[in-house]
């Protein structure tokens, strides 16, 4: 009898462990749709900050930049050099605004879930989370990149752009189509997986020591956010650059 009770206790314990969720999620019900509240809240904050920062930094432009103007110009120069490296001197200028939107928005989204030690800022029924740890968020810039890729190719070469799918032989048509169709999922899942993993790695020790563990992990999260934003922007620029290259 004692052994049977022990087994029941073990099974019940394992069931409780398996049902534990990492993080708390808050949802809004809008009509027939269930909306992820954390994604909307943090996304709105990110958009507001990205709009406010350049406005504030460029209110009083100086010939010799200082302070926030210097920071904005440094970021723009970095994005311009990144785009030029991936697309070449002739094609990079029209694409700078697109890549210049992708990089800061993804970086800010990556980091927006934990501007303070985790669990210090919470929603009524959940806690703040990075928008990019939701697959719906990462799919959006990936699809935009795919659209920008096709638009750049059509604008550069017209309908001859579609000739790339039968190069170097028409036999490779299905493979070339499959290659292009897998790039958006690859971009979105790479970003989503890395940001989700970053938060999961911190979640378990934080649940044990919530006020101590987050502080030393914040620089690591900042590094991860920057690297993932850089990788996405670099791959997006390279992907768009491919569409404007001629086939020999």
Question: Could you characterize the architecture of this molecule?
Answer:
InterPro entries: ATP_syn_F0_a_bact/chloroplast, ATP_synth_F0_asu, ATP_synth_F0_asu_AS, F0_ATP_A_sf. This is ATP synthase subunit a, chloroplastic. One of its GO terms (molecular function) is proton-transporting ATP synthase activity, rotational mechanism. It is found in: Membrane; Plastid, Chloroplast thylakoid membrane. About 65% of the residues lie in helices and about 5% in strands. The protein has one domain. It has 8 helices and 4 strands, in the order H-E-E-H-H-H-E-E-H-H-H-H. With about 250 residues, it is mainly alpha-helical. Helix 2 crosses helix 4 (about 95-110), helix 3 crosses helix 4 and helix 7 runs antiparallel to helix 8. The strands form 2 sheets. It has a two-stranded antiparallel sheet. The protein has a two-stranded antiparallel sheet with strand order 3-4. The longest helix has 30 residues, at about 215-245.
């Amino acid at each position: 009898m004692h052994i049977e009770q022990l087994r029941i206790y073990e099974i019940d314990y394992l069931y409780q462990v398996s049902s534990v969720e990492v993080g708390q999620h808050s949802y809004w019900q809008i009509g027939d749709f269930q909306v992820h509240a954390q994604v909307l809240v943090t996304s709105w904050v990110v958009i507001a900050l990205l709009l406010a920062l350049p406005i504030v930094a460029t209110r009083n432009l100086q010939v010799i930049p200082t302070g926030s103007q210097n920071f904005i110009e440094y970021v723009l120069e970095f994005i311009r050099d990144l785009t030029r490296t991936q697309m070449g001197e002739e094609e990079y200028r029209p694409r700078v605004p697109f890549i210049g939107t992708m990089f800061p928005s993804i970086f800010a989204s990556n980091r927006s879930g934990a501007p303070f030690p985790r669990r210090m800022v919470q929603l009524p029924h959940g806690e703040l989370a990075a928008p990019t740890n939701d697959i719906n968020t990462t799919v959006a810039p990936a699809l935009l990149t795919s659209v920008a890729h096709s638009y750049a190719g059509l604008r550069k070469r017209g309908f001859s752009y579609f000739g790339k799918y039968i190069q170097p032989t028409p036999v490779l048509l299905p493979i070339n189509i499959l290659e292009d169709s897998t790039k958006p999922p690859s971009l979105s899942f790479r970003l989503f997986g890395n940001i989700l993993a970053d938060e999961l790695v911190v979640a378990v020790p934080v649940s044990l020591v919530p006020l101590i563990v987050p502080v030393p992990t914040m620089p690591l999260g900042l590094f991860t956010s920057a690297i993932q934003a850089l990788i996405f922007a670099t791959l997006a620029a390279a992907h768009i650059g491919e569409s404007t290259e001629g086939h020999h």
